Amino acid sequence: MNAALQHTAKAQAAILDLDIAGRPVFPVADALLRREVPFVFYTGRREDVDMPERFRHAEIISKPLAASDVAGAFDRMAAPDETLVTDVARMLPLLRAWSRLQVADPVGADRLVERTLQEAIRCVRAGEAPEPHERLADWLFMKCEDVLSRDAAAILN
Known about the structure:
The protein is mostly helical. It has seven helices and five strands, in the order H-E-E-E-H-E-E-H-H-H-H-H. The chain has helices spanning about 1-5, 25-35, 65-80, 80-85, 90-100, 105-125, 135-155; strands at about 15, 20, 25, 40-45, 60. It has a three-stranded parallel sheet with strand order 1-4-5, sandwiched between helices. The protein has a two-stranded antiparallel sheet with strand order 2-3.
């Protein structure tokens, strides 16, 4: 763990195995987070992960791992705005982080994300998908704001 912590001062990006010699890698992730260094988590036990709230935005890639998985993770770290807008599944951590900034209660923030996704699905089914020139991220954030202003009382209870 100490060796990994020493590398955080020079790191530009990182893939962190969630478990280093039987200990959670969260101190290393905290050091990277303080320096605003992008990272993803790597694990063979995705179902067993008890992710601390402060890392819920981070992507988790799972074993077995293909080279394309690593390349994709690095691409998303290098240019998240350009890659996240094309795929709602990859937008989810960003939407979730944004919702946490809007709603202090984590459960309420998760309700906001859930209702936003339901609203987005309803809109797409009704033919109200984002315009071709509109980024998916911007469209989803707008939907999130609409849902929050409309359903704040239900979300915050």
